[in-house]
Amino acid sequence: MNYTIISKKQLDSQGCLYEMVLSTPLIAQKARAGNFILLRIYEKGERFPLTVADYNRDEGTITIVFQVVGKSTELLSTLNIGEDLLDVVGPLGNDIHLKKYKHPVIVIGGGVGIAPAYPQAKELKQAGNTIISIIGARTKDLLFWKDKMEQVSDELIICTDDGSEGIHGVVTDPLKDIIANKPISLVIAIGPLVMMKYVTLTTNGEKNLPKIKTMVSLNTIMVDGTGMCGGCRFKTNDGEFYFACVDGPDVDGHIVDFDNLMKRAERFCTQEEESLHIHRCWCESIAKSNNQIGDEYGEFEK
User: Which of 74, 214, 227, 285 is the 20 to 30 A CA-CA neighbour of 254?
Assistant: First the structure.
């Protein structure tokens, strides 16, 4: 089966954020909010997870959004419309629990987490819920899908760390104001681990604020995606262990030991940097060689 890139869009000005639509007819028929895929670009490439950011059952496509942070995502960013990925496995992970809640649901997307926050807000809105969405990024340039989030939200709040758009601050600033002044049934937070950590600290019932059930999405390091390799395991505050791929990726944020998880997330940083360096040196060497050959052909044509 071919997993063809149907469309590709750069979402920022620096070439760090990309949106891709992939032809995956079978996956598109089953995909739901909360699911993820594992993809592999070429035979010797790593398998890495990306959340399903949207799906179209009629067209047989899914949408992914990714940030260039390592060798594999950098390679993915170089592919163009019409090219194929070697493997796309999914949908994996559990669907979100859809129901009609009594009070509004707050959906928070931070950075690239805006993409997986969108299908959750959309499906919860379709189930009849009132949705308050909060999206945030370091700067205005890294904000994306504002129109899409607005379409599935009763209220959309924007935050940027540098104040270039919306509230000058982090997503927990408006979150505190909202939960202090109105009843909320559920909070969903998707984004960097440190962001999700502080969202759960805001909703844990301390600091004179009510305790609110909070779900977080753990996009951890994964290999097989079926609970066998153990790479995605995370520790709870009670000392138990779960696997993000089969027990999540959406889990109760109040049980997660985020400090332990953030340390685990850093365990392959050295290897990733080395791999990326080798990859870039190889690319630079090929480019240099091609330029030299091009110069030689230019001399020959003269």
Answer: 227
Single-letter amino acid code for the residue at 242: Y
- Report d(CA 109, CA 199) in Å as an integer: 11
CB 119 within 8 A of CB 54: yes
Residue 265: in which H helix or E strand, if any? helix 258-265
The range of the structural domain enclosing residue 46 comes to 3-92
Matching residue, tokens 């129109």 = 147
Distances (CA, A) of 109 to 81, 112, 159, 235: 27, 8, 10, 23
For residues 214 and 203, what is the distance between their CA atoms, to the nearest angstrom? Answer: 7
CB neighbours of residue 99 within 10 Å: 11
> Pick from 200, 217, 234: which residue ends a domain?
217
290 domain-assigned: no
Look at residues 217, 238, 271 and tell me which one is the last residue of a structural domain.
Answer: 217
pTM: 0.85
Query: pLDDT of 134-148, one tens digit each?
Result: 999 999 999 999 999
pLDDT at 269 over 50: yes
In degrees and rounded to multiples of 5, residue 163 shows phi and psi of 75, 15
Note whether residue 36 is domain-resident.
yes
Which of 222, 280, 193, 190 shows the shortest CA–CA distance to 39? 222
- Number of domains the chain is built from: 2
DSSP letter for 46, please: P
* Confidence check: pLDDT of 230 > 80: no
